[in-house]
């Protein structure tokens, strides 16, 4: 009888492990936070703020050694909603994460963004940036701390620009903080 109980218990453990390995997770991390919109430019003169959200997907493949794994990015999608009816945007791209210590990491990301801001601003007293066109290039950098296996906090700076592809190219730079939950 004890062998039967042991056998039944071990097969249920094997089955649960098989379910976990048969269903790899597509999601890697979810992040939420706030940012100051262009604190050094016209859109941020009155302290304009954004609610930000981002989903990072799992790496498309893995490397056998740690050094090579740093060169494999995670795809991401996200958005930034402005509270003052100024420029909001959605973005997608790739994120590279580098561990400095087991708790501290730095990140860089590159991609593109679409926005609801102004392409050209004819009113010199307008609160909106003249971003020139949509889509824009988006770059960001973060410094973060892992609080546990699942939770992290990070300081982030991001910049959106058309890189001179359109007549107007003031760009938009946001600075903020985010909380991340890793799956």
Strand content: over 45%
Q: Taking strands numbered 1, 2, ... along the chain, how are they ordered across the largest sheet? A: 1-2-3-4-5-6-7-8
| Helix vs. strand class | mainly beta
Mean pLDDT: 84
Number of H/I helices: 2
Largest sheet: 8 strands, antiparallel, barrel
Overall outline:
globular
- The run of helices and strands is HEEHEEEEEE
Rounded to the nearest angstrom, the distance between the terminal CA atoms is 39 Å
- What is the CA-atom radius of gyration, in angstroms? 21 Å
- Total beta-strand segments: 8
Helix share bin? 10-25%
Given as residue ranges, the uncertain stretches (5+ residues, pLDDT < 50) are 1-22
Notable characteristics:
globular, eight-stranded antiparallel barrel, 2 helices, 183 residues, mainly beta
Description:
With 183 residues, the chain is mainly beta. It is 14% helix and 46% strand. It has two helices and eight strands. The protein has helices at 2-22, 66-69; strands at residues 27-37, 49-57, 74-82, 89-99, 104-115, 136-146, 151-161, 172-182. Strands 1-2-3-4-5-6-7-8 form an eight-stranded antiparallel beta barrel. The two termini are 39 Å apart. 26% of the residues are buried. The model is unreliable at 1-22 (pLDDT under 50).
